[in-house]
Amino acid sequence: MIAHRAELLTQEQVQQVHEASLEILESVGVLARNREGRDLFARHGCHVDGETQIVRFPRAIVGQYLATCPPTFTYHGRDPRYDRTLPDDGPLVANSSSAPDILDPETGQVRRARSEDIARIAYLVNELPGYDILALPVTAEDAPPGQFSISRFYPALKNCLKPVRGSAPSLEEAKAILRMCEQMAGSEAAFWERPFVAFQYCATVSPLTMDVESTEKLLRYTEWGVPSFGAIVPNAGLTSPLTLLGTLAQCTAEFLAETVLVQMVRAGTPRVFDALPTAADMRTVAYAPGAIETGILTMGCAQMARYYQVPCAAFVGSTNAKLNDAQSGYETGMSTVAAMLGGVDLLAMGGLLDAMMTFDYAKLVIDGEIGLMLKRITRGLEFSEENMALGVLSDVGPGGTFVETRHTLKRARTETFLPTVADRQMRHQWQSGGALDSEARALQHVRDILRRDNPAVFSPDVDAKIRAQFENLVPGDARL
Amino acid sequence: MKEKILERLATAVIDGDEDEAREGATGALQNQIDPLEAVEQGLSKGMQEVGRQFEVGDVFLPELLMAAGAFNSAMEILNPEIEAQKKNVTKLGTVLISTVKGDVHNIGKNIVTTVLDINGFRVVDIGIDNSPLVIIEEAQKANANIIALSSLMTTTMPAQREVIEVLREMNLREKFLVMVGGGPVTREWAEEIGADGHGKTAIHAVETAKRLMSQKS
Question: Chain A contact for B62, CB < 8 A?
Answer without folding.
Answer: yes
